[in-house]
Structures are given as structure tokens and as C-alpha cells.
Amino acid sequence: MSEGDLAAFTHLGPTVRDALSERGFATPTAPQQLAIPPLSAGEHTLVIAPTGSGKTETAMLPVFDHLLADDVDDENADGGPPEGFGALYITPLRALNRDMRERLEWWGDYLGLDVDVRHGDTTQYQRGKQAENPPDVLVTTPETVQAMLTGERLREALADLSHVVIDEVHELAASKRGAQLAIGLERLRDLAGGFQRIGLSATVGDPTEVGQFLTGGRPCEIREIDVGSNVDVTVTRPEITAEDKRLAGELMTEADTASHVRLIRNLVAENESTLIFVNTRQTAEALGSRFTELELPIGVHHGSLSKEARIEVEDRFKSGELDGLLCTSSMELGIDVGRVDHVIQYKSPRQVTRLLQRIGRAGHRQDEVSRGTIVTTRPDDTFEALSIARRARDGEVEPAAIHEGSLDVVANQLPGIVQSRGDTHLRDAYNTVTRAYPFRDVPEETVREVVSELHRNRIVWFDEGEDRLETTGGTWQYVYSNLSMIPDEETYEVHDIASGGQIGTLDERFVVNFAQPGEVFIQRGEMWRIAEIDDEEGRVKVSPIEDPAGEVPSWIGQEIPVPAAVAGEVGEIRAVAEPQLSAGADAAAVGRELTHRYPGDERTLTEACEQLERQVEAEAPMPTADRLVLERRGRTVVLNAPFGHTANETLGRVLSSLLGQQSGSSVGLETDPYRIELEVPSSVATSDVLGILEGTDPDHVETIVELGLKNSDALAFRLAQVSAKFGALKRWQGNGSGRLSNERLLAALEDTPMYQESIREVFHEDLDVERASAVLEGIQSGEIELVTHRGRTPVGQGGRSSGGKELLAPENADASVINTVRERIQNDRIILLCTHCKEWKSKTKVRRVSEQPECGNCGSTRIAALNPWADEVVDAVRASEKDEEQETMTERAYRSASLVQSHGKQAVIAMAARGVGPHNAAQIINRLREDEAEFYRDILSKEREYARTQSFWD
What we know:
The chain is 48% helix and 15% strand. It is an alpha/beta fold.
């Protein structure tokens, strides 16, 4: 190793260099060579380097060195560490806190520096010790920093702060947690003066922007190692073999799915330790159940499992007891699970950032290449994965979508500022907030509006005459109840009824819409039957079963959006393939050609290109980044548009909104990164769709979409969360308003900062007005070709990749949703009880109920349709003497029987729906409607109303 290579360590003092020798650090890693010089000089620095390349030591060695220096600061001229906290090491996950402390403790012990951890689970005793005798380095979370800023002794200790390290800074930069932390850093600066800020990340698409986020717009050194050059990714789609057909029978599944299981199993067997990343918890559980059936040593790890369950599988994987770990983003951020040889990504990772984070987990040795395999399932998936793998190799990472000017974050931080400082002039609070990079452009008048709302809600007191903010009786409680910007959503603990141990958690919305005694679901890769639901305790009690037929929990969570650049490259691949296929080349020849540019095997690329070959053979135009294809069959209209999730969602909303206005009917909408699918009334002509695309002013896109949002569940959902951060919901309910429907909520808040922020958030996270407007401009200028095709095309039918979009789904569901509702209700079980003889009872599936149910004992048609767990209602009907509660149950059963006698099976179907009793069922039945689909649409509307009421207000 040359002197130049070793030069980085010469910037460190002798004590730290001795520690390096003791620890076996003979030579600096690449990021250490680049970053230690500016870090030692005290410069704000953003370090971007692959996972496992020593970023933590890169940041902390100069920090340790500084804390040991003789001239730490003027107030501590006698030498040695400061009396208060010297450095904060902030991570986005508590699990990372644990890992970081273990990594840093050795250095602290050797150097004589205290290293400790503090987060929400830290005991009161430990917190007291830290306040009395602050450690030199504290490992913590963004939310705990918020709590520390309000404690008197902790604030005194924070006044000595000289360094803040933020790990996984890219993760925070793109979230409201990060926006909150940005203000928190400026509040720390008010206490401690200027301190050094250090950001660490494996992937950053826009280093300058993230650097500005880190420093609050101050100068920032960027030290970056090319992450893509250290990554070796292969894209493959498994070929169905004879073994897969045998395996399919064993697993009671399709051969295609069995081929995926077999390939993953073989890849795990070829390596010592493998992480298998999937995009959703549902997929993790579904695959986990397959591996459990095959008795393979592969665990499941995701955020809905209990902390104990997660730590258990982490330890089993680290010890070698498990060969593989099925995981979601819970494993993306560097939790220490020991050495990882290989990473499998099941289905496209959707974004370059995610691929680099995930594949980067493999090969934790200096200068070692991280190897991984993307297993794809269909042509869209394959082309998308190829684009992402190519872009990862070439370092084309997506920019971080920083939340600019989040008003609920401002509302969250102002009470904290007042609580910690006491009476504060508005201008002083405003200056602190707007020094944070995401809030640099927020006008003072907007902050004044936020303050006025907080004043109305008695969170702070605002003296307008003197422009002063003061605490109220509610300030302290608000601050400590709102340390996090993560939305509050109720969860139910899942407990094994036999052992009493906790298995994991379920979102309340899942419990409301699916969970019932007797139902089956998958968690931790195992099958469970629900025995009891305790709403007061928030617990679901379950028992394990071996029945392979079950339903995977439907956790709330939107699909990872595919960026426009990735979708556009898929369009470019099609554009390259089309002339070759039109000239007579076959899919194999085109696939071979693509292997020169993309990291996929020839067979996989050939299979994907067969879809494009069928498109050409059908004499259908090829959708590309420069050509949109509008195809139609019956009421289904599909615009093939490879512009990514958010742009297509925006265009789809424009189309569905304007077509709905023109026709006076609802228009169903389904989008994915490559298609916009509409279910239109028969009165809508294809020329109407073309007219909107060719005639809508691009400058009007935002207005059209916002008008469409005004009465949507999407906006109401965000509004409920945002207004909670302003303390607004509590005030209205305290005034006797009680539960607020979505309509009343939207109407009450329309001209408030909460409404403004909710609109901003929907546009920021789910929509892309700028790109959608650019598409309309391109169509109207002729830069983008728009062609039509009668009937469906192979490419147009290749989608249906949506999932987890219930928050943004239009209220008027399309045909596919209605079919799903119909199928689910027909397969639900129901109790039929004769209210005449009271003896006959039958539990059966709805689909098996006759058109006019009769008692099998006495022949009566007065049959009550009851939920499958309503045995207490049966007992109430049969009881000779009844208490008040039993009388109510009996009355409900008789009303149900009256409906069934009058309307037969139609009444049974209505009452089998979630939360639809005899009263709502009568309303549904008595409506005049054109077809059966409208009947199920009305049922779905009542179910949604029930789910909304339960999940928001119970």
C-alpha cells in the first residue's frame, strides 16, 4: 500500500491510529480514503458508498478523534471529551440502533469514550442516567431527538454537541420524518451553535440536493464511490420443467408459481446465506408458506412481525441455522445479519435505488462485488427489471423526492419549539423553521396561518398583538403524543391462543374488512385460523392449522411506484425491437441482440420478446415512449402509455374525470406504469377519449385532478391524518360533533392549511402533474404519436399489476373489482335459521343457498341469514326468556327473516356483506338498478362506509 493510499489515516491522531492497528485496519477502504480528509477538517460531508464498505467507521473515526483532541472547544480547553453529548448518530430504524452500538462500542472502550443508545424502548432508569451523565456518543432515532429537545437537562447536555451523523440519509430525505428532522437539526443548532453534519448512504440519485437537505443549504462536501460498478445482477425468468409440474401438485399451486419456488430454492442451496427480497409483505408470507410446506430453512422477516420474532430470525440467519431470509424493505437498511453471499429480488424491484440497497447487502468484504439475481414473472416485469439493472450498473439513480414545505410538519414543530424555549416571538420560530432546507421557501404568512390553527385547537397560545407564541395546558401533551410524523394507524396484536405468544400484527383495516372467527390467513410463513377478535384489547387470537388453503393478509401500503425514466426505457426497448420484428427477425434474434446491453440470459429475453412478437403478428401498433396506443374492446378502453405510475395515475384521473362529466356516468380507472385502463359507459366513444387527449389544455391538468380529488376517499384519508397533527379532529369531537363522515370532514376543512397540505401530499406522493402535462403537450404538438386499435392487443393485456391502491381507487369501482366482490361474497359462509320452528339451522356458503330458502324441518320461508359466528343470535332466538340484549338480537333476526322471505337469495347476498345488516340490506335491495353489477356496487359502497367508520373512528 502506497503512502498516498495510507494518507487518509494520517489525518487522525495517534490514539485513533493505535486503535486502527489493534482492530486490524491496515489500509483505508475507498470511502475512507476519500472522506476522512474533509471529515477531519470539520467539513459538512455526504458520504455515498456501497453497503459493507466501512461507511460507519469512515464517519466515526474523525468524530472519535475530535472528541479526544486537546482543544475540543474554548469552554473545554483542558482537554478530553465535552461534559455533554459530543456526537449523535441518528438512524431511521431502532434495529439499526442496536447494530450501530455494537459496532461502535469496541472503539469507545478502546478510546475511553462512552457509547450508548436511546430510543422509545429505552428504560426510564437508563434515560435518567444519560441525562445526569451524558455519553460521548449517543446512537438514536429522529423521533427520540425530538423528545430530547424538550428535556431541560438534556438540552443543557446537547449544548456541547459538535457532530451529528445521519445514517441512511436518503431514506429520511424523501419522507416527512426527514422534514421533521431537518427542523430538529436547526433547533439543535440554536442550542449548540454550528456542529458538523455527516450524512451516510449507499444510494443517492441527486447528491447535491441531499447534501443541501443535510446541511440546511450550507456548503457540503460530496464524497462518492460508484456503487453500480460493485454490483453484478442477473435477470432471469424460470423455465417450467417436469420437476415444477411435480412440485406444483405437491404445493397445490400452478406450475408457473412452482418454477419460481424451485429456482429460489436452488439459488439458496447454491449459496451459504441468501436474502430474498420481495416488494410486499403479502408476497413474503405467500412464498414463506410454500417454503414451510417444503420444510426448507428459510425464514420470514417484515415490519408486521413482532420485534421478538424479527430478532429471532435475524439471529438464526446469522448463526447459519437458516440458509435464507425472505424479507421486505425491513432488511434494506443494513441491519446486521452477518455475511450475505447472494441476494435474490423476487419480481422487479421497481426502482434503481431499491435494487442497489438490496443487492448491496451481499458481499460485505472490501472491494468484493455484490451479486444478485432478479427473478421475474412476465414480460413487463422482465423488461422493467432489465432497465433497472442496466441503470444500476451505470449509476442512474432516482432523485430523492424531498417534501417541500410540509405544513403538518410545521404544525408539529412549532409546539415543540415553544415547549422547549418558553415564550417565543413568531419571527424567531419562523427563522428556525425556514433555515431547514425543505422549508426555505415557506412564506411567513403561511406559518402564521398554521399558528392560528394551532391556537384555535389550544395546542399553543398566540398573542397576535405581540406576535408571541406561548404554551397552553395542551402543549406538553401534544408534543409527547406527536414525536413522530409516521401516521397513527391502529394495529391488532396477533397471539397464538395456545402459547399466548405474540406472532405479529395486523392493520385495523385488514381486521375490519377480512378478519372473522374461522377465517384463515398467513403470517410468519405459517397458516393461522382466527379464533377470537378482542376489539377493546386490540388482539386477534389465532390457532395454527396445516390446511394449505388460505388468504394472505392484505396490509395497507401502496405499491412501490415505477419511475417515469424506468417505464420510458421499457418503451425504448419496444421501439428497438419493433422494426427488427417487422423486418422478419424472430423473438430469439431480438432477445440475443438485447443481451449485449442488458444483464439477462438469452432465454429470458427471448420469452419477454415473444409478447412483442405477438404484437407485430397481430398487426397492432407498438406502444413506445414516443407512441401511445389507444385500444378498445366493448366498454374497456386501454391507453398504452409507458410513463410510470404517477404520470399515468394523473393522466388517468384527467380522463376518468372529464369522461365522467361528459357522459354523466362513473368511469372505472386502473393504472400501472405502462397502461391506463378505463371502464367506460357504452355511450362513450373512442373519439371522446381522443378528444380529451388532443384538446385538454396541459395547464389545466392540476385543476382538473384537484377537482376530482375534492370528494374522494383518498383526500379524506390524508386529511384525517394531517388534521390530527394540527390537533383539529380532537377539537371538533370535543364540541359534540362526534364522528365525521368523509364529506363533512372535507367540507369543514376546505379552506384551511390542513386541506392545503393534504392536497400537496397527494400530489407529491401519488401524482406527477408536470410529466402528465408534458405528455399532453407532446400529443398536441405531434412529438408523441397517438394511434388507435380496435380490440385488445398482447401488450395491452399484459398489465393488471396494481395493488394496494385502495386509498386512491375511484369510488365507482370497475368491472374487475365488482367481479372480485361478487366472488368473495358467493364464497362466504352464512348461517340460515328458521324463525318459525326455531329448530332448523344450516351453515353453508352463499353460492349454495337456493333462490328461495326454506326450512328443512317445517318448510317455512321465514329464514334469517346470519353471520357465520352469530351463534349467540341463534341462542337468543331459541331462548324462552330473554334479557334486553337478547331481545335486540332476536328482533334483528326476525327483520332478516322478513327480508329473505320477501326477496330470497338477493337478501342473503346483501346480508352476507361486511357490516351490512337488515337495515342497510333493505336499502340496497329497494333501489332500482339496471343490472346485477349495480347491485354489487351498492353492496361495495356500504362495505366501504362500514370500513371507513371502523378504521377512522372506533
